[in-house]
Specification:
12 strands; Cyt_P450; monooxygenase activity; binds protoporphyrin IX containing FE; oxidoreductase
Length: about 525
């Protein structure tokens, strides 16, 4: 009679053989075997999950594309693509639905962003897509200026009071990451919640912390196998999503109290803010208003999609300008040569008169893509061909879009790691800009792109007009906030973290600038 040890050992051998056979079959009995990629990625999605959980998906995909080319197998059923034409083709149609992970992110019920159902997405856009149109953004522009530009200027001007003098000029140390965060949240407060969160004025960052934690939870839940069952991992953050829900619910209730939905409101009419558009929206078939829980989910979406994204975009732009003084000088000179001291520069002014500023922002979004997380798309039931039939992707495969890898593709961008706004200053400017997919493209393109550009353009133009900026000199600038800070050779060396959005990992250390009133 075999001993218990022998039985266990035999059992383990059988399980081992079964596991290896399964892994080998999974790796090689599929057309994906023809696609190059890292060895371990052929058998499992483990290394992809590992890089996602560490917040390094963007670096990982940039690396594998540099090594293996424009189409890379990064998991047993996952393929990453950095070819811009192929990505535009995939993104152009609802045939390639968003991956199932989107529905696990934690929005209940599903909303415009998280739904993988094209019909719900289309319905929502019909109902309130107009809230995000260029015309609507112009209607809100005074609010954007008040809670963006003016409140930032107010808080930075106040810093001069406790700042220092250098060569007879006042100067102050400011953390631009927190400054840009405050304005992005306050703008969404006004437009999406009916009132500013007052972060720029009070410094209370409770809501920012809650959004950051909720994003981290969402990335892990959406992408880790069994992520939804790992509730215990998030014990310390459990209250954050509830806190955000309660804030959104209160905003919806207050808006309804002030002006109940009449449900025959013209969807094209202009409204004071995005929240009002949502509350007034009706189902195109039944004429019924959107129910409260769905409204709350859409309002929350504005916090998650519309804050960190714009403010990180501004922070990366500022980091780039501080590290490339000649580009900064050119930008500053263009702004000051076209606008008088004390002018207020509006979004259309930037578009019409400051092409270099538009180029700087576009180049910064290319090089430091804000939405740099995994954006998976499912293959249709019949599968799909890639690269003119070179590869066949069967149903069940996901194409993981890495916008940051696409933006660093050496076949599309000469010297791709260089910050070079001149790329967008030539006669092919428009065409080059269309290859920047920072807001994605096609049928699920960012709904808030006009709002985001309005924020970024107006904030950047107006602060360039009013302040001189420089990187702190860690040896001679004596500010206690700079203790323990490092100086990096390039912006790429600044530690980064991507949980859907890519941000500096240690903003409390790496996002300082010295400002003085414009010379
Ligand atoms: C610089 C700022 C921003 C960037 C770089 C950005 C980028 C993106 C990207 C890449 C997507 C596609 C995501 C995917 O396919 O999974 C997206 C979707 C979306 N964004 Fe933005 N975004 C920004 C700001 C905003 C703002 C301010 C709002 C609204 C307040 C917003 C609302 C949305 C919505 C609703 C979607 C989902 C669209 C759909 O699935 O049909 N975004 N954004």
């Amino acid at each position: 009679m075999p001993s218990i040890y022998a039985m266990v050992a035999n059992g383990l051998i059988v399980i081992g053989i079964w596991l290896i056979t399964k892994l080998v079959l999974r790796a090689y009995s599929t057309p994906l075997r023809h696609i190059p990629g890292p060895f371990f990625g052929t058998f499992s999605n483990f290394s992809l999950t590992y890089h996602l959980a560490r917040g390094q998906y963007h670096r990982y995909t940039q690396g594998v594309h540099t090594k293996y080319g424009e189409v890379v197998r990064i998991g047993y059923n996952k393929v990453s693509v950095s070819n811009v034409a192929e990505l535009k083709r995939i993104l152009s149609t609802h045939n390639f639905r968003k991956g199932k992970g989107y529905e696990k992110i934690g929005f209940k019920p599903r909303n415009t962003f998280s739904t993988i159902d094209p019909e719900l997405n289309k319905t929502r856009k019909k109902q309130f897509g107009n809230a995000y149109s260029l015309t609507s953004i112009r209607t809100y522009e005074d609010s954007i200026l008040e809670h963006g530009v003016f409140s930032l200027i107010k808080s930075w001007d106040a810093c001069f009071a406790k700042g220092k003098q250098r060569d007879g000029r006042p100067e102050a140390l400011v953390n631009f990451y927190y400054g840009f965060h405050a304005v992005a949240f306050d703008i969404i407060g006004v437009l999406g919640f009916g009132r500013s969160f007052g972060i720029a004025a009070t410094g209370n960052t409770r809501i920012i912390d809650a959004v950051n934690k909720t994003l981290a939870i969402g990335t892990i839940k959406g992408n880790l196998p069994f992520g939804n069952r790992l509730q215990w991992l998030f014990r310390g953050m459990a209250n954050e999503p509830e806190f955000l829900q309660a804030t959104a619910r209160a905003a919806v209730a207050e808006c309804k109290l002030q002006r109940p939905n009449s449900c025959n409101t013209n969807a094209k009419a202009q409204k004071p803010n995005i929240l009002q558009h949502l509350v007034d929206a009706c189902d195109p078939l039944t004429g019924e208003p959107i129910d409260d829980e769905a409204l709350v989910s859409e309002v929350l979406l504005m916090l998650i999609a519309g804050t960190d994204t714009s403010s990180n975009g501004l922070s990366w732009t500022m980091l780039c300008l501080l590290h490339y003084p000649e580009i900064y000088s050119k930008l500053r000179n263009q702004v000051r040569s076209r606008f008088d001291k004390g002018s207020i520069i509006r979004c259309d002014d930037v578009k019409n008169q400051l092409p270099y500023l538009v180029a700087v922002v576009t180049e910064s979004m290319r090089l430091h893509t804000t939405v740099a997380g995994i954006l998976p798309r499912q293959m249709p039931a019949a599968g799909a061909e890639l690269m003119n039939g070179k590869y066949h992707l069967p149903s069940g495969t996901e194409v993981c879009i890495s916008l940051s890898a696409c933006h660093r593709n050496g076949n599309i961008w000469a010297n791709p790691s260089k910050f070079d706004p001149e790329r967008f200053m030539g006669p092919d400017r428009e065409e080059r800009m269309r290859d920047v997919l920072a807001f994605s493209a096609g049928v699920r393109i960012c709904l808030g792109r006009h709002l985001a550009t309005a924020e970024m353009y107006t904030v950047l133009a107006n602060i360039m007009l009013r302040y001189d900026f420089r990187l702190p000199d860690l040896e001679t600038d004596c500010y206690e906030e700079l203790a323990g800070c490092k100086r990096y050779k390039s912006v790429d060396d600044v530690p980064q973290r991507t949980f859907l959005n890519c941000s500096p990992k240690y903003p409390q250390k790496d996002c300082w600038a010295i400002i003085s009133p414009a010379s």
